[in-house]
Amino acid sequence: CANAGWTMVRKKDLATEKKRSEVIEQLSGVYRLLADQMVTILIAVENEIDCLKNKLKEELMSESEEDVKILFSIPGVGPSTAAAYLGYVGRGDRFSSSSQIGHFAGLVPKIDFSGTIEHYGGITKQGSTVLRRALVQAAWTLIRVPEGGALRETYFRLKERIGASKAIVAV
User: Fold this and answer.
1) How far apart are CA 161 and CA 151, in angstroms?
2) pLDDT value at residue 118
3) Distance between the two ends of the chain, CA-based, in angstroms?
4) In this predicted structure, what is the pLDDT of residue 7?
5) Cβ contacts of residue 59 below 8 Å, gap of 6+?
6) DSSP readout, 109-147?
């Protein structure tokens, strides 16, 4: 199949330069040429993204706000997450507790009361989708690094009981 240009290429097969080269070697003729051109474009786009992330981080750090330094000290939080958090939440002065920020972002469970029965459902999803997505992605990164600490341990403890996707939202 590789001779005809058909291969089973997954996203992880394109993660590194070495893996990309291995995929391209499986192809022949015009398919190899096209794949080579696409990899060149991909590398250029990745370099541009890295450049923009660095500029964003420099811009955020130049504000010399203590909040920015605290955000960047959290494992998993990069320039995109920090910018989303600061853009939607800001300094957080308007919130009296961290749980209010959770409510603002829509990361708290829906609660249904009926008499004496309480039922906790999925998250409310009120608030900014961008902020919620950025925080969840940061949490996924946090649990994959050894510096994740107590939050990482919390994820693995909850994962056994409620599943991975609910546990990551809880983190």
Assistant:
1) 16
2) 80
3) 44
4) 60
5) none
6) EEEEEETTEEEEEEE---S-HHHHHHHHHHHHHHHTSGG
Q: Which two tokens stand for residue 146?
A: 């050894």
Q: What share of the chain is helix, strand, coil (3-state, %, to 5)?
A: 70, 10, 25
Q: Where are the alpha helices (DSSP H) in 10-28?
A: 17-26
Contacts of 10 (CB under 8 A, 6+ apart): none
132: its two tokens: 């919620």
164 C-beta neighbours (distance < 10 Å), count: 14
26 has pLDDT over 90? no
Name the token pair of 143: 């649990």
Position of tokens 């003729």?
29
